[in-house]
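Notebook entry, structure prediction.
Reason for the run: the old model in the group folder had no record of what sequence produced it. Starting over properly, with the input documented here first.
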Amino acid sequence: MERNCLECGVQISGRTDKKFCCDHCRNTYNNRLNKDSKNLIRNINNKLRKNYRILSELDPGGKTKISKMKLMQKGFDFEYFTNIYTTRSGSTYYFIYDLGYLPLDNDYYMLVVKH
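New structure, fully documented this time:
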């Protein structure tokens, strides 16, 4: 049974489940396949990454109270988070992966780390 490289089409030999002739073709094929073809995905991931960096920079101890203005000055975007956690008492925490924030009164936020 003749098999060809999925990237360049060259005939390949070896293991029966082999799909590429070399690492270069495998990497090229997967990079093209997994490329964020839509700017939307890339932009959202960049905003999540930036929000995560800001929270980790401002909350080194695991629990900190901070003003909304301070977060906004750093470039934090409140529209981008990965999940929401609502406690039994009705408090809603917004998380970017394991770092989160709880809206408080007077435009303050409690920054927390999920353990």
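Summary: Residues 44-113 form one domain.
The old model has been moved to the deprecated folder.
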